[in-house]
Amino acid sequence: MRRSRRGGSPNEMTFWDHLGELRTRIIRSAIAIALGAVAGVLLYNWMIENIFLPPYCNVLINLDIQRECTLVITEPLDGFRTKLRVGIYAGIVFAMPVLLWQLWRFITPALHKNEKKWAIPFVASALMLFALGASLAYYTFERALEFLISFGGDSVDPLFTPGSYLGLITYMMLAFGVGFQFPIVLLFLQLADLVQPRTLGKGRRYAIVGIVTLAAVITPSGDPISLAALSVPMYIFYEMSIVIGHLLTRRRRGWVPRRERRAASSAS
Fold it and tell me: If we measure between CA atoms, which residue out of 204, 209, 212 comes closest to residue 239?
């Protein structure tokens, strides 16, 4: 439902209008992901050599495992499936600006006129947080992988297939990037008056449990390093969203400090 324009008649959307709008945004997002996936497939060899394999090679050196840093195919279709999977994950990353913009355009009708100017800050901050989360996952993946390998004992010799290794590291980066959208979601809920900053402040204990649980679910490795690397920033974002939510909601409602209210009442 579009909110009524100030000084004009309300411009409402029916259920079918919303459904048509959603279909248009989904189609555009799917096209963006498909184009990004093509780019990901074309850059597959470069990404493996320069992005994905270095953490694995460093772990082999740290654990003093004298073996060539390569991935092993055990099934005829492993290489084909892995290339498609990595291409799709890369396509989502490449298409992230388009996906966020389509999301913003879909929720724009529910916003006030002065709130629509937040489009660029919304997309920019979401992209920055996604890149920050993916980078954090990448730089902590080496420590997490070393922990997982060493936890198996000295008699275990790591020999990974492309599907298992590349699937893990790409999913970790994607999961961290999506998890770092947590403050954006909280701010939107506060601006939409669905959640109050004071309510979030009172629910800190439950938030800690929920954040740790969510981090444990979306991190496929299950190691404590990845769990801490995701849950600690998410809780920091939780506290920051409460502070920013207080400021935005007060400004939106025309909040006036107590001293100014007293000065205005005394002057009157």
Answer: 204
State how far the Cα of 165 lies from the Cα of 131, in Å rounded to an integer: 21
200 neighbors 207 (Cβ within 8 angstroms): yes
List pLDDT tens digits, range 189-209: 777 677 888 888 888 888 889
User: For the segment 117-163, what is each residue's pLDDT rounded down to a tens digit?
Assistant: 777 777 888 889 999 999 999 999 998 888 888 877 767 778 888 88
Q: Collapsing DSSP states into helix, strand and coil, what is residue 232? A: helix
* CA–CA dist 83, 36 (Å, integer): 13
Dig out the tokens for 27 from the structure. 């189609």
CA dist 17 and 70 (Å) reads: 52
Contact status, residue 53 vs residue 166, Cβ threshold 8 Å: no
Structural contact between residues 248 and 190, judged by C-beta atoms closer than 8 angstroms? yes
Planar angle of CA 121, 127, 131, nearest 5 degrees: 145
Tell me the DSSP string of 42-85: HTHHHHIIIIIHHHHHHHHHHTT--S-------STTHHHHHHHH
Residue count (the chain): 268
